[in-house]
User: Which sequence fits this backbone?
């Protein structure tokens, strides 16, 4: 009886774990930070945006079901490195430092970084930021830029841009350095804020996969190239910024 029970238990375990494995194989898991409109954000309880539209195309091409994991921005690369996610996308700037940790796809959009200030702020030029309190999102290229170019400034790193916005509105910070498109969304819903005139700097966005995952990298690149050739990415941007 013990031997029969053992084989029954073994069969159940094999069935359970093989079932879990096939379920994981049927999914394409994307790690993102859903507080970065128009690229990824919540709408009626669902994560939507430019990167989500692209991710759906990637999953469809691979014949898989897309699963989106909302994590802190500075956790995205770790999710990909550890295999908890297949790829990451959240307006991720392509930098040499990040290239040492993950493999980047081709660039699929160019980002302008701007400065958000209070509407009653007296700040008029970027040079005036050098000794000010600057809010950024943790782990972003904006954070790195401020650290390098404004060493005398006080850096306030937040998990979310909404928290950075509250810092500026309350006077805890003088400005936010962030991407232009999310900045436009931010000031549209916060009448106390405005975008300072001019572009602070520009950078390029890519998606990330685990180092050495050449097969998935090539598959994503093929989809990105097709979408760019078809003008779809521009359509997605317009869809979520109108």
Assistant:
């Amino acid at each position: 009886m013990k031997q029969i029970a053992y084989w029954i238990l073994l069969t159940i375990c094999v069935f359970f774990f093989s079932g879990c494995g096939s379920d994981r194989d049927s999914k394409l898991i994307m790690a993102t930070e859903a507080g970065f409109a128009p690229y990824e954000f919540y709408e009626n309880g669902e994560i939507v945006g430019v990167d989500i539209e692209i991710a759906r195309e990637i999953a469809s091409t691979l014949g898989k079901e897309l699963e989106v994991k909302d994590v802190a921005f500075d956790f995205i690369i770790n999710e990909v490195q550890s295999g908890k996610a297949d790829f990451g996308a959240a307006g991720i700037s392509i930098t040499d430092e990040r290239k040492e940790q993950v493999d980047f796809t081709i660039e699929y959009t160019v980002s302008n970084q701007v400065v958000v200030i209070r509407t009653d702020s007296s700040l008029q030029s970027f040079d005036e930021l050098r000794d000010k309190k600057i809010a950024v999102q943790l782990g972003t290229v904006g954070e790195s830029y401020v650290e390098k170019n404004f060493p005398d400034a006080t850096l306030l790193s937040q998990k979310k841009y909404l928290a950075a916005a509250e810092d500026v509105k309350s006077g805890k910070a003088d400005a936010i350095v962030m991407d232009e498109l999310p900045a436009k969304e931010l000031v549209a819903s916060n009448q106390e804020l405005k975008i300072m005139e001019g572009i602070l700097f520009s950078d390029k966005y890519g998606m990330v996969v685990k180092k050495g995952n050449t097969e998935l990298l090539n598959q994503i690149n093929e989809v990105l190239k097709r979408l760019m050739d078809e003008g779809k990415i521009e359509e997605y941007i317009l869809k979520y910024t109108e």
Residues 14-21 have pLDDT under 50 and may be disordered. The radius of gyration is 21 Å. The chain is about 40% helix and 30% strand. The chain has two domains: 2-109+204-239, 111-202.
